[in-house]
Amino acid sequence: MKPARFDYTRPADLAAATAALADAGAKPIAGGQSLGPMLNLRLARPSLLVDVVRLPDLRGVEEGPGGVLFGAAITHAEFEDGAVPDPTPGFLARIAHGIAYRAVRNRGTIGGSLAHADPAADWPTTLAALGAVVHLAGPEGRRELPVEAFILGAFETALGPGEIITGVFVPRCAAGARFGYRKSCRKLGEFAEAMCAVLSDPACGVHRLVVGATEARQLVVTEAAALIADPAGVEDLLRRAGLAGDPATFRLRRAVIGDAIAALARETTPESLTS
Known about the structure:
The protein contains eleven helices and 14 strands. It has helices at about 15-20, 35-40, 75-80, 90-95, 100-105, 110-115, 120-130, 145-150, 225-230, 235-240, 245-265; strands at about 5-10, 25-30, 50, 60-65, 65-70, 135-140, 140-145, 150-155, 155, 165-170, 180-185, 195-200, 205-210, 220.
């Protein structure tokens, strides 16, 4: 199939982009790795595509003592290749390496992944575990939201009319921070059927666990020290969150969460991120 008819514009600056996006039928496009297939299948039928991938405000990187603010149009490949600073002990590059295929990583962007809000995508789960904050700009000005507050559900975000993601702030981890990440896919490059990210950073007092690939929004546990110390509580966590209805999916999630917690105790390689 081919996309339904739409108009196209490439604004010169952020103000022009937010003005164009105020149109009810407008939709931003950056890498297009998620939106492109949806257009071809006519699952998305915008009347106007607003190309934001080259906006200078979306391509910057600001590094500070507390973390790094990445422009929304930074690609997965730039994280993977170390072309941008990493405020974590290499966690971002490892996650980026496991996203789909290199062709996708060359064009797909971190802001686009968050805006699409696919529960099975790597960045929403990872960034929620890292305590990242989404920076937004729109007709009413600028605002910031934690990732878990920005994503409201499956393919649903807090973006308002005319708003756009300008960047993602990732807090700096201590050198001794540990990160466990596991996802289960039928084959390499496919979307995950179950996933979990765990951050243990005692020096910063942070212990977070996030379950992704759910039917709605990610399950975020901000005080996960007890669960990390005793993973036996995983079953109760999933049941209380309503994620134990299907026995097969329940067992898969339980196993993936257990593997992510276990990964905290040992070094992981990019190749081991996908099971």
